[in-house]
Design goal:
Rossmann fold, Protein-Tyrosine Phosphatase, Chain A, about 475 residues, 3 domains, alpha/beta
Length: about 475
């Protein structure tokens, strides 16, 4: 649905965070006289009313009955369409759309494709791959936009002046947004799916629905080119008749042999420096290079520029060294699989990993099995699911595979990790669980970790490269 198609309809906004405010500004830029109603939390009411929009009715909290009074509700990504009030309103005819879908609806060319767009999703590694791809495209001399779930809503870049327009759009999408692209009716030029593991089950309601929603980026949005990980069983089994599939992760394309990255049988680069520095998982590199190849650029010419890529905040971010210890902030790690990937990056170092947070009922048994191959020196459990993780890992610790400690919150976990390593090793915050409860989000958790380690939280929080450059 294009913005112009909202004219004459009963329209509401649901959520007044950055995405909600971007949607309001985008609608106002095209439809300045359209009456709007805003549903938001009590602490957002005053901010919303201060915007000075006489045609914006700030109505407070949403309910099924109140939502059902509208033809269209612009929903912020964090609000699940499967929530009871949303599902009830949808059953009565209300259409829910997101800002990502609204942006895509404005981009379709004559063939129904959003030209020069690359959408990246995956349970693990999507932010790093998105930012790395933008870095490589800029290294190749292309003016590139970096936006989406990574920290810049697409609607904030809706009306870019022709002189400022990017040659490529590199867009990170969460599982909350992939269905929006499919619903827009406009096809991405290229869509990347890195992997699919159980995640965000509280938002989606079940693992099956999470997988279905995640894969809508390629199954329903029908990209011109789908770049898929051949090593992921769910992705390897996909049949996409409307898309050209480009694989990575097997010997027919970009893949690893030991520490070396190959394009088919051609050795391209040594990735050991990426692992040693904790900059990125080499899998993110070969996924990004497969996209460069799909864009008919020369991936070999930019591959080594991956060594100049700096990790994003809270994503395997090396904060620095204090008292002989290297401090690494991987607060965005919200699945056990992400924590395992982080451990792999520091396989040659003494590591104390801090595990645990909000308990979503995710199964940690596969993590425990894999830990036999990637065991750190110290594991410190914490958070609501800390006791469950601790109990699962206790038999391994009893066998002497690692030291297992219990932290009463992040501060206590940091102190115990610091003492256990005794001035030699890496303190790795890679909790494998969300931050909900003690923290607003993973950013706040990462900032607290930085402060506890002796670093300036403000200095480590900026996301480089956002926007158009």
């Amino acid at each position: 649905m294009r913005i112009s198609q909202l004219d004459g309809r009963r329209v509401a906004l649901w959520g007044w965070g950055r995405e909600g405010q971007a949607a309001w500004r985008a609608i106002r830029s095209r439809l300045p006289t359209l009456p709007l109603t805003l549903f938001c939390t009590p602490d957002e009411v005053a901010t919303a009313r201060s915007c000075g929009d006489a045609l914006l009715n700030v109505a407070g909290e949403a309910s099924a009955g109140r939502l059902a009074a509208f033809d269209v509700v612009m929903k912020s990504p964090g609000i699940s369409p499967y929530a009871p009030e949303a599902a009830a309103a949808a059953a009565r005819g209300t259409r829910f759309i997101g800002g990502t879908g609204l942006w895509f609806a404005e981009q379709g060319d004559a063939a129904g494709i959003a030209a020069n767009t690359v959408c990246v999703t995956g349970t693990k590694g999507k932010s790093t791959t998105t930012a790395l791809l933008a870095h490589l495209l800029r290294a190749a001399g292309r003016r590139t936009a970096l936006a989406g779930n990574i920290g810049l809503p697409l609607l904030e870049l809706l009306d870019v002046a022709p002189a400022e327009a990017p040659e490529s759009w590199v867009i990170e999408l969460s599982s909350y947004q992939t269905a929006d692209v499919a619903a827009s009716g406009v096809r991405p030029d290229i869509a990347v799916v890195l992997n699919v593991f159980p995640e965000h089950l509280d938002w989606h309601g079940s693992e099956a629905r999470y997988v279905e929603d995640k894969l809508q980026l390629v199954t329903e949005a029908r990209p011109r080119v789908a770049v898929l990980n051949a090593a992921d069983p769910r992705l390897a089994a996909l049949q996409l008749p409307d898309s050209e599939i480009r694989w990575f992760g097997d010997e027919s394309g970009w893949h690893l042999r030991g520490e070396f990255l190959f394009d088919r049988d051609t050795q391209v680069m040594d990735t050991s420096s990426l692992r040693r520095r904790g900059r990125t998982n080499p899998g993110n590199v070969w996924a990004a290079l497969r996209v460069v190849d799909a864009m008919d650029l020369n991936p070999g010419a930019v591959a080594t520029r991956a060594n100049a890529y700096l990790p994003l905040p809270n994503r395997l971010q090396t904060l620095g060294t204090r008292d002989g210890l290297t401090w690494v902030n991987d607060s965005i790690s919200t699945t056990p699989y992400a924590s395992l990937a982080a451990l792999e990056c520091f396989a040659e170092r003494r590591v104390a990993i801090l595990l645990g947070g909000h308990d979503r009922g995710v199964d940690w048994s596969e993590f425990a099995k894999a830990l036999a191959c990637h065991a750190p020196q110290v594991v410190v459990t914490m958070g609501a699911n800390g006791p469950r993780i601790h109990q699962l890992l206790a038999p391994m610790a009893d066998n002497g595979e690692f030291v297992l400690l219990r932290g009463e919150g992040l501060a206590d976990a940091v102190n115990k990790a610091r003492a256990a390593l005794d001035g030699d090793g890496v303190v790795l915050l890679s909790p494998g669980a969300p931050s909900f409860g003690p923290y607003r989000d993973y950013v706040a958790r990462g900032r607290h970790f930085a402060s506890l380690a002796g670093f300036d939280p403000d200095a480590i929080s900026a996301i480089p490269g956002l926007g158009i450059a």
